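Record pair follows.
FIRST:
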Amino acid sequence: MEMPSEEVPKFAELPQADLLKSVGSKSCEAMTESVCNNDKSGIETEQLSENYKLNLEVPLNSDDVNLGPEMEKKDDSEKISDDDDDDDLPSLEDIEKTEEEINSGAKCKPFRIEDEPTRLTDEDGWLDILGSGDLKKKVIKSGEGAGTRPQRSNWVTVKLTGKLTDGTVVEHFDSLKFILGDTDVVQGLDLAIALMEKGETAEIIVPSRLGYGNIGRPPNIPPDAELMYEVEIFSVEEVGEETDLPLEERMKIGDEKRERGNFWYGRSDYSNAIHCYRRSLDFLDDEKQDFRNPTSELQKLLDTRLKVYNNLAAAQLKMDAYEAALKSVDFVLKVQPQNVKALFRKGKILAAKGKNNEAIAELKKALKLEPETKIIHQELAKLMLKKKQEEKAEKAMYKRMFGTTNVSSSQPKSQLRSWSLIVGGIMAVVLGVAVYRQLHG
């Protein structure tokens, strides 16, 4: 006997409680939790909502659709795999919330399919970029779309204003052009601007550790200062080949990066200084140019390049990268054999490598060129003293090896007689052997 079939009610007619039962309350809870946790599987929000539609078997536009047995189940083969294209990867700002943030009740917008949010922000609109709660970004005016975001090594032109927490303006540029990721700006801005779009205006909170640190930037930025920036992106351009730029522009950019390297060097941030110096050389080095008979413009470029190599060697020396530093100063000395700074730094590098005699020779060359420079005198005197101490230690070691240590004052004569008898005996034996061979030869 066949059972009478029940008429399936339309989706729109289902009460809210029955709707939850038909969908599955656990599935709804899983949806909200997954989105608030930024979906650990790494699926874009748009793809995520599509998957939820399929798994729940509830289409978005369901006013005239019946929930019947004829609805097809989604095949498991359509799940996103690890081998899918990069287009399925999450955007940069969709950083996973930590379990601690979730448990502490961090603000998170509830998931609604019709909203399909593309970014996870708190109720005030702030995006927690690193998940640590200190580097944040808030959109004031939307940009032209995610496809216009700047990439690392792109030229970015922005309007920028930086303030202390009390509102004091400490930085302002109506039009600042820089290369993203080249440490031309503080690290916090490098990270946040990479998440902005062309035409976008945003507020950015930069903590001290990603700003000017515990040194600050005297006189207007105190140590450990949190900064509030307002940034508007005007344009985004690709850099292209550095050597394709006009010579005058290359010189300008190269010198700016040299100065930026000096800024980091003065803050004892030698790693960033080395990066800036190397990027400067990308614009200043050119194998196509003939520097044997340089024009006045080429001579300026060459002089700037030698300054950069000299400064690069100083930063590498601070990082104990002796071989790299030696190559940098040798490049300078190849072009300018009497460059005092290069000779002085080469002396310090060789001394650090334990080659004191070579180091002293280089410092003497530098001192001959600039006899009034006190620091060369000091370094040379220090090395000469070190050399004497090493020679003294070496002699003491040889004495210990050959048993010629100092004897007590009460036994000098007996020690001498013993050695005399030993030497005399050896000589007598040798003489006897010689006479024997002569007589029986």
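SECOND:
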Amino acid sequence: MPPSKGKGNGKKKGKGKGSSKKTKNTLSDPTSSCIFPREIISNILSRLPVKTLLRFSCVCKPWKKLISKPNFIATHFRHSSSLQSATCTSPIFIHTRHIKSFDHVLSLFDPHPESSPVVELDSPFPSYFQDMLVVGCCNGIVCLSQPPWGEMITLWNPAMRQYRTIKLSKTKPLMGIHSCVSVGLAYDSQENDFLILSLLCFRPAETRAPDEVEMCSTKSFSWKKLKNEVGFRVLGLICNVIIKGVPYWRAVVEDAHGSREVLVYFDVSKKVFDKLPMPGIRVGTKGYPVNLEDSLGMLIWEKTDKYNVNVWVMDDEDGWSKKCNVGITFGFDRTLGCLRNGDIVVEDENGVLLFDPVTSSVKAKFSIENAKKGSYVIFDYSESLVLIGGMLPVKKEAAEGKLAREYLLKRTYYQAKEEQIKRTIFPLLASLAFQLEFGSIMESVNTKKRVTENKKSTIRSFLSHNCVCSSSCY
């Protein structure tokens, strides 16, 4: 007898299940469908830019799965950083203020000759906040914060166009007792964990108590209090520099030797703070900690000297030593910092210049349209595929929104011009009108005087010819 209809269907179902299971096993290997060995495919993809990888993730599910793996993301960032070190070029993250609207503008500049010019980024930070600081860049993640109380802390990956805001600590600053909250960003490579540090600073006039420290982990997104065993008080609203995931602050400590300035840093492995001495900075000089080839460095220059910058480096054994003196022949208005490859970044009247201290030449220069002079802040940036749990896509500003913003900006500009003209012209018109009115009044008075004098003269003439009385009558 031929098999029944139900049995036939059962066999087919069984065959279908086996085929489905085989397909599932094939997809579990992200590179098994490629003709090249999976190691070669993974190696090739890990050396491509993030923008290209995002396009390639749409090619097939195996590639999408590969690109999102933690091991691949770590390898990709390692290759990207090594390439930047080999070519001595790294993108620069730029924060400026618009000269008219005072909006915060965030941009990227790649000094590589074949790259595109400055690219403005879509910021995840709310535009209605007037104040914003860039805390720093670490492993492709940019940290933003609102001063002076360290609010609206935002972790953002510009390359992936993803961001997440961090819930604030329950410990609130007290008005009149605390002066500010200083924010720092750290990265624990062993735990693959980003750490946000919040330093609650007391007012110096009220007390000399050390800062209160709290830490938030992106693994749990909960705040934890840390001990300030060093007893420091930081001097800024954000950390000065981040080197290999370690944030550094300029701070003041007090001990048996008195009060002195030091550098404090956060040891990510031990989760404690420690301090380092500062190089000799005399009165009248300025110093700025920098990342110099993944080592701690310091730029020191005279406040009145616009041509020379001294570069110091910290060695674990020998301490601080002067590396070189960079003579910038064309002069500059302001020192912005130093890139990881050693290039000195300065600002002059034409924009921002990247000066190579080895060749004593300008490697690159750029300027941002409508950027307020003196508002440039620069950071070393390395793109990555890193994402943090709970991140959301950054909304791209619509074309209508940009046009409306430009229209509002122009309208505000012309209204200000109109008010300026009114303030200037109206007093002049009023003065002119007063002068004209006063002149008209004086002319009328003078005319009346002349008429009166003419009448008197006529009467005298008539009396002199017709009166027989004595001359005393007239």
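COMMENT: The radius of gyration is 36 Å.
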